[in-house]
Design a protein that fits this description.
mainly alpha, 2 strands, about 120 residues, 4 helices, Arc Repressor Mutant, subunit A
Length: about 120
């Protein structure tokens, strides 16, 4: 049985902006891309609600519909916002990874350098 998740799933806005950084996509393509690269399933209500909020903030823009599909793309403001967010997350993950590496080495060494 998989262990329960300790931390919440990534914010849908971050996932959608990250997906659109790879090129324009419609809602279903966004859902599939996010599932593929992040391992997170987001439903249509979440995707389209998030897209509406991101569009209101000028971070994404809707493109001309193609048949029944409504594609979106990242704006320059969206790219800037995503860059800032990813830098912030990178600081946290790189610090956490470095500290974890030191802790694991210490745990493997055991007390006074003896095997654990």
């Amino acid at each position: 049985m998989p262990s329960p998740r300790i931390f919440p799933k990534p914010d849908p806005s971050l996932l959608i902006l990250s997906s659109l950084a790879g090129g324009e996509k419609h809602g279903y393509a966004l859902m599939k891309d996010v599932e593929e690269f992040a391992g997170v399933t987001i439903g249509p209500g979440t995707v389209f609600g998030c897209l509406a909020r991101l569009e209101e903030r000028g971070l994404v823009e809707a493109l001309e519909p193609q048949q029944r599909r409504h594609p979106y793309r990242l704006t320059a403001a969206g790219a800037t916002a995503l860059t800032q967010q990813l830098r912030e997350l990178e600081r946290v993950t790189s610090t956490g990874s470095a500290r974890l590496g030191a802790t694991r080495r210490r745990l493997c060494d055991g007390p006074a350098g003896a095997p654990a």
